[in-house]
Amino acid sequence: SQQGEEDPQALSIQEGENATMNCSYKTSINNLQWYRQNSGRGLVHLILIRSNEREKHSGRLRVTLDTSKKSSSLLITASRAADTASYFCATDAYSGYALNFGKGTSLLVTP
Amino acid sequence: DTGVSQDPRHKITKRGQNVTFRCDPISEHNRLYWYRQTLGQGPEFLTYFQNEAQLEKSRLLSDRFSAERPKGSFSTLEIQRTEQGDSAMYLCASSLTGGGTEAFFGQGTRLTVV
User: Fold this and answer.
1) How crowded is the C-beta side of A94, counted as CA atoms within 13 Å?
2) pLDDT digits (tens, 9 = 90+) for A41-96
3) What would the 3-class secondary structure string for chain B be?
4) Is the minimum CB–CB distance between A21 and chain B shorter than 8 Å?
5) End-to-end C-alpha distance for chain A, whole angstroms
6) What is the C-alpha separation between B89 and B109, in angstroms, rounded?
């Protein structure tokens, strides 16, 4: 079963706006990762945040983690049309080796 | 190194036939994963290798599915007696050992069972 759940399922914004996606998970984790997938392609790693971290930045990306609420958010600032893709959170649970993915948020950025 | 490569990229097969997919991970990565993804869903974990040892298998991996990683290098995923429900994108990923390491994904093999 999938560990994470992203919200919203779909998001449509204009270039230059910020996009925020949320992820909730169920069990204790070692770390949480965000991946991006362009249509019909493989996944690309964006950022990893460890369970003892609360916030992390990478370029235009900002990730927060609240382990008490079992939730994370991904913020993409100053979005571009090229950011159009599906975004997935993935958790690395203590109980196993595999990354468990949510269903993803489909982001559309229009010029 | 050009990353994780998967072959073939696309496969159309008739129901009941067997298919085999290949994954070549990044050479220094000793962890290898197989995932399955259907339209509108996130990747679902199938199985995991640490070197040549298959350490974890999902309940999704029925008896018709088998995966190998001989010599801890490339891996194959075989589906026997394919069913229409097996139609999906099969993704392979590899990573280094250690907690909190990113996984590198291949482009996937899209299987269509007709």
Assistant:
1) 5
2) 889 999 999 999 999 999 999 999 999 999 999 999 999 999 999 999 998 865 56
3) CCCCEEECCEEEECCCCCEEEEEECCCCCCEEEEEEECCCCCCEEEEEEECCEEEEECCCCCCCEEEECHHHCCEEEEECCCCHHHCEEEEEEEECCCCCCCCEECCCEEEEEC
4) no
5) 37
6) 6
Q: Judging by DSSP bridges, how do beta strands B109-113 and B10-13 pair with one another?
A: parallel
Q: How far apart are CA A34 and CA B15, in angstroms?
A: 36
**Would you give the distance in Å from CA A22 to the centre of its chain?**
7
| Beta carbons of A41 and B108 less than 8 Å apart | yes
Helical segments of chain A, H only? none
**What does the alpha-carbon distance between residue A95 and residue A82 come to, in Å, rounded to a whole number?**
36
Tell me which amino acid residue A77 is.
T
Structure tokens at A35: 């991946």
Mutation target vs A (from B21, B31, B45, B92; most A CBs, 10 A cutoff) = B45
Nearest-Cα distance to chain B for A110, in Å, is 21
- Tell me the pLDDT tens digit for each residue of A11-43: 999 999 999 999 999 888 888 999 999 988 889
Interface check A3 vs B, CB under 8 A: no
